[in-house]
Structures are given as structure tokens and as C-alpha cells.
Amino acid sequence: MNNDDVLATFDTQMRRNARPDSPGARVDRTETTTRQTGGESGWNGVLWSALDAESADAAIAEQVEHFAGLGLEFEWKLYSHDLPHDLPERLLAAGFTAEPQEAVMVAEAGELSTAVAPPEGITLREVTDEAGVDLMAIVHDQAFDTDGSRIRRQLLEQLTEAPDTVVAVVAMAGDVPVSSARSEFIPGTDFAGLWGGGTVEAWRGRGIYRALIAYRARIALERGYRYLQVDASDQSAPILARLGFAQLSTTTPYVYQPKS
């Protein structure tokens, strides 16, 4: 895998030419930016930009005006290879707040082992209905200590209106959900995105996360996707590297909250 070539393909397919990530979202493109407006229940933000020192501040102000005019918090999803190099400082000066950095990691699906069984006592259950989504929400709240209500609504919408674009799975210890994850499949691209992988603290370090990667890699291969892509936390990145993922870049969410 040529990392530079794969990163360029990723930027084109998944960022510049991004499609809406939910049925109710809208994507707007210009020569210098791609943004999604997902409304109050969806994801709002800038996915791609091609700026320079002369155009950056005006582009930032334009996005702030758009989303603030709708009363929406939004995210500028900045990548470490984006230009200009001082874009992070410009975003901070415009009132954005930086959230934790993640590693952009990619692997060829055909190079990963897909025959990884979950540890003893764990079963993997594919999510197809509201009851399954509720189990995933329980895991999300416990694993990340954050409110998963937006993700719950989005996943329910996808499963109802566009079920071919998402596969979700929850790991069960008997009747107790202990880990979960999902894959998103964008038609016409080479990438399957792996999202939301999280395990309740008491169940970490037992191989559940690895089993969820293998489960989703197998499905991606069956559907004809060449690459798996993850925005990995510091906790997940070492595991993914051992499995064969390469780090191509980093990404940092810069969040803007409209003034009340």
C-alpha cells in the first residue's frame, strides 16, 4: 500500500466528494470547501478544505456565518496535512475549540485476518432494530462517558432509510452489552469507515475490539471495499497498528458553538 497515494484517494473520495452521512443531511461543495449540514439531530461541519494564507480567514468566516445563522454547533474536521499550516491557529482565533487529536489509520481489507473469534463468553450480535440500537447506546454511554443520543438517532435513521450503508454490531456477555461498533459504506468509494468502536472498561484487554475489527473487515471484503479507515484514539491506535493498519495523517475536530 502506497500511503501517499491512498491518502490522496481518501481526500478525494471521502472528503472533497463526500456524500451525506444520513438521509436528512445536505452536502455543499465549492472550489475550496466541502461541508455537511445535518440539522439539529445530525453532524454539521467542514469535511475538506483547500485554502491558503489569503483565503483561509474569509472561508472560516463564511462557515461560521452559515452554521451560526442556523443556530447549529459545527465542527471543522482538520487534518494535519491541510493547508495553510497555521490553519489551527486561525480557527482558534475565530472562536473554535480543539478537541483531542486522532490518528487517521488505513489498512487493505484483504490483508487483515477475518477469522478472529470473540473471546470465550462473548457473542457478536448484528444490530438490525431499535432494541439493538438501544444496546449500542448503553455501551457508548459507558465506554466513552458521553451522551450517545445523537448517534442513536442517526443509526436508527440509517437502519430505517438506508440500511445498505451501515452495519452495526454489539458484543454481548450473556445479556449484557459490553462492546459495540459500526461500519459505514459509501457507494462508489474504496473505503469502508469503521466507527464507534468502544468497550466498557471492565471488559477491555480481552480481544473484543480485535474481533469487532475482523467482523467488519469480512463484511467490507464481501461488499467489495478495498480499504478500511479508522479515526483512532490513543487507546485504539496501538491495537490497529499491530493488526496491520498504517497511520496516514492525524485529524483534530475544531468545534464552534454559536453565541446565544
From TrEMBL:
One of its GO terms (molecular function) is acyltransferase activity, transferring groups other than amino-acyl groups. InterPro entries: Acyl_CoA_acyltransferase, GNAT_dom. Residues 122-260 form the N-acetyltransferase domain. Residues 1-42 are annotated as: Disordered. Gene3D superfamilies: 3.40.630.30. This is N-acetyltransferase domain-containing protein.
